[in-house]
């Protein structure tokens, strides 16, 4: 029974953490470990500071300027840096996408082809759903 109770608590926590995620017909609790971890850390100031350091300049840009760049970055990372797929999903020509990606890299002062940068940006984008 102890294992059943722990599994039920895990499922309930995961369901709560999934509330900040993009809508889907169903979620597999075993595949949401990163989001569950980020949700558990949502009140920790270090997580908010990490999000601000990683994507703060884009958030500031998007509050006052067009086009909004966070959605572009999110789609780009979702497609693992595949520019043709990203442009297609965003209904952009490739040159427009290249210009946006260059602007994102400039605002963040980073290289979007660097694996560590990609990991940090992916985590920051996921974490922002759980932070205030």
Protein model, in words:
The protein has about 130 residues and is mainly alpha-helical. It has two domains: about 35 residues, no CATH class; about 90 residues, Arc Repressor Mutant, subunit A (Orthogonal Bundle). It is about 70% helix and about 0% strand. It has seven helices and no strands. The chain is elongated and about 60 Å long. About 15% of the residues are buried. The model has no long low-confidence stretch (mean pLDDT about 85).
What brief labels describe this structure?
Arc Repressor Mutant, subunit A; 2 domains; elongated; 132 residues; 68% helix; mainly alpha
CATH superfamily of the largest domain: PucR C-terminal helix-turn-helix domain
Strands, total number:
0
Structural class: mainly alpha
* CATH level-two architecture of the largest domain: Orthogonal Bundle
How would you state the average pLDDT, rounded?
Answer: 87
Topology order in helix (H) and strand (E) letters: HHHHHHH
When the domains are counted, the total is 2
Q: Ends: how far apart?
A: 36 Å
- The CATH class of the largest domain is identified as Mainly Alpha
What is the overall shape? elongated
Strand content: under 5%
Radius of gyration: 17 Å
- Share of residues in helices: 55-70%
Question: What name is given to the CATH topology of the largest domain?
Answer: Arc Repressor Mutant, subunit A
DSSP summary: helix tally: 7
* Major sheet: none
Poorly predicted spans:
none
